[in-house]
Amino acid sequence: MSLTVLVNAGPWLPVPPKGYGGIENIVATLVPELRRLGVRVVLGTVDSSELPVDEKLAVFAEGQFGHLQRPYNQACGIVQSHLHAVVRRVRDGGDIDLVHDHVEAAGLATLAALGPDAPPVLHTLHWDLAKHPELYGGFDGGDRVRVNGVSASQLARAPKALRDHSVGHVHLATPLAVDAERRLADRGGAAAKGRHVVVLGRINPGKGQDLAARLAHRAGFDLVLAGPVGPYQQPAELAAAEHDPVAAANPDVRFWRERVAPYVDGERVRWIGTVAGRDRDDLVASARVSLFPLRWAEPGGTAVVESLALGTPVVGLAEGCLPELVVHGDTGLLTTDEETLADLVNWAGEIDPRRCAAEAARRFTPAVMAESYLTLYERVRKGPLLSLSEVKGPLLNA
């Protein structure tokens, strides 16, 4: 395939990220498969990114995520500096066939403003589409800029202007899904499961770690919370910021201190900070359940597909994408009642880890995701939009 795509990951974290980084992990999963399929990839990122690509485009040496906590007048130029470089590369290079953008709000607005002679754009929506109502509610990308969701439920909640520009959704993928069944057997399958339940993800009200911690004490199961609190990746970092007014103003830090920390006793409930790589895989693979006590409509669910790929059943509230990703009674258990989650944790022992791994290998591999995106690329490049009711097959990879 003769196709050059500028994949714009943004200036916030390297690709792949060193720890937490949902969008950057997805880009790191997608790009190698695109290149395997013959796509030439120009990656818009930071210079510390180590993902092999055909060309790296970077303004900043390191990820700028930590600067998001600064006042707006100190941080507002970061994403604009990055996007300025992207626009110059698109305008001056002459070889970009399509831009696949992953930068929230600013990427969509900037690339749509380039005019009709610029390359087509596919902008992937990774986040809550209730945000930015003025942008999303009135968006007009003409026939050149399209969007895709990361789940059908996400797009169903989108403003009409975004739905009118949508070419469908592509579920997220994980390299862990490749040969998932064999790797589960190598780990010892169900026999290798421990006693702990894990909640993996950024600690904030939408993820519901306070509910998980309360239920752990009430129902008597051991709970491990893994993920950052605001910009603080490890417990020692957050402890060092105890008297920092910037930390105190962070809403995730306030949530942690007021709603979660009172339950964290180091025995029944532990917080271990961000885990990555083999440590994360071992933590999830040895858990008897991955718990998702969601209080928001999760758009994509990276941690869900990772858990299934590692042979760990998912228990959660049936919010957002979870009913699309989890087969109730087969790869996990879902409910709409917070108080029944603890019962489902105990019942999840009836779920066969081999079914979780098999479903992940069928639906959530990088190859499945890349093939779906190639179909979207061709659709974006070729013609007028279809309505969502007309989009079928690999465009909606349920």
From TrEMBL:
It is an enzyme of class 2 (transferase). GO terms for molecular function: glycosyltransferase activity. Its EC number is 2.4.-.-. Residues 20-133 form the Glycosyltransferase subfamily 4-like N-terminal domain. Gene3D superfamilies: Glycogen Phosphorylase B. Keywords: Glycosyltransferase, Transferase. Pfam families: Glyco_transf_4 (PF13439), Glycos_transf_1 (PF00534). It comes from the Bacteria. InterPro entries: Glyco_trans_1, Glyco_trans_4-like_N. Residues 191-352 form the Glycosyl transferase family domain. Transmembrane segments: none annotated. This is Glycosyltransferase. It comes from Plantactinospora sonchi.
